Amino acid sequence: MRTYASFREIQHDLQHGKISCQDLVRHHLSNIKSKSHLNAFLSVYEQEALTRAAEIDTKIKNGTARRLAGLVVGLKDVLAYKDHPLQASSHILDGFISQFNATAVQRLLDEDAIIIGRQNCDEFAMGSSNENSAFGPVLNDADNSRVPGGSSGGSAVAVQADMCQVSLGSDTGGSVRQPAAFCGIVGLKPTYSRISRYGLAAYGSSFDCIGIFGKSVEDVALVLEVIAGADEEDSTVSQKPVPAYLDDVRRDDGRKYKVAYVSEIDNSDGLQPEIRQSILAQIEEIKAAGHEVERIDFPLNEYVLPTYYILATAEASSNLSRYDGVRYGFRSSSANDLQSLYKKSRSEGFGKEVQRRILLGTFVLSASYYDAYYTKAQKVRRIIRDKTKELLKQYDFIVMPITPTTAFKLGEHTGNPLEMYLADLFSVQANVAGVPAIAIPCGTDNAGLPIGMQLIADDFEESKLLHFSDSLLK
Ligand code: GLN
Question: 53 C-alpha to center of ligand 1: Å?
Answer without folding.
Answer: 34
